Amino acid sequence: MDHYNVEKAIITTINRTKYHEKQREISTTINEKDQATKFMADFKKLVSNHQLDHTDVKDIANKAPDRFYKFFWFNPKMDPDTEEDDYKILENHFKEGFCGVKIHSGFHAIEVPKDIQKLISFMQNYDKNIIFYIHSLPKTSFFGGVTTRDIAKLAEQYPDLRIIVGHAANTMSYAVDVGMTLRSYDNIYFETSCSVSFGIYNLIKTIGHKKILFGSDSPTASTLQIEIDKILSLPRISHEIKQDIFYNNVDNLLKVRT
């Protein structure tokens, strides 16, 4: 962070199921159809039905509490027998200063808003300022994903909920869909990590730059240098707009705390 002049960061934990290492073990001699079948079979084995340990997040944040905002990666599709315990875990993390919740539509095959009604109600009842981050993913042959209409329904149902659409321009077509469908919602923000550069440019033109938040998804999916360069290289975008995307917009979002 110091090397790249990153003053503050939102952090969450990672899935330590050795997913990427496992996938490299797939033989190149397996045909494409069998590879896809094996991919999904292995993927299902690696997705935990329990809540992930966030000790790493707390340990890092405790070293420099003024620099880190802690988000809890929550699985709303837990075992019904452990549901009460899972929400108690989440509440305890809120008490420890976690100010946001992340869900992963791909890992946990979450349907929005159906599968997250209890989670959002729990968050809103605890503190309406808790931020909700959706790891968004277009529908593919592998993952159900979440559609922009799903996110729009959520924003309409919970107008006080501040929603961050993660990886909001991860393909050009998705960026167009996101921009056109979600631009009128005041409670939706758009995060840039793992996005295509011109998709970010398209979002600036369709929704305006004030609701675009720089993100890196480092170190698991990308690098700070790559993600920074995507913003710096945007054509015909002023230094002031880039500064808003890099810092001011997310800083203003995080300042809205009771």
3D architecture notes:
The model has no long low-confidence stretch (mean pLDDT 88). The chain is 43% helix and 11% strand. The protein has a 7-stranded parallel sheet. It starts with 8 loop residues before the first strand and ends with a helix. It is of the alpha/beta class.
Spatially, the strands of the biggest sheet line up as 1-2-3-4-5-6-7
Give the fraction of residues assigned to helices.
Answer: 40-55%
- Report the top-level CATH class: Alpha Beta
How far is the N terminus from the C terminus?
A: 28 Å
Total separate domains: 1
Structure summary:
By secondary structure, the chain is α/β, with parallel strands linked by helices. It has helices at 19-23, 32-46, 55-63, 83-95, 117-126, 148-157, 172-182, 197-207, 224-232, 239-255, and strands spanning 9-11, 68-73, 100-104, 131-135, 163-166, 188-191, 212-213. The mean pLDDT is 88.
Name its key features.
single chain, alpha/beta, TIM Barrel, seven-stranded parallel beta sheet, globular
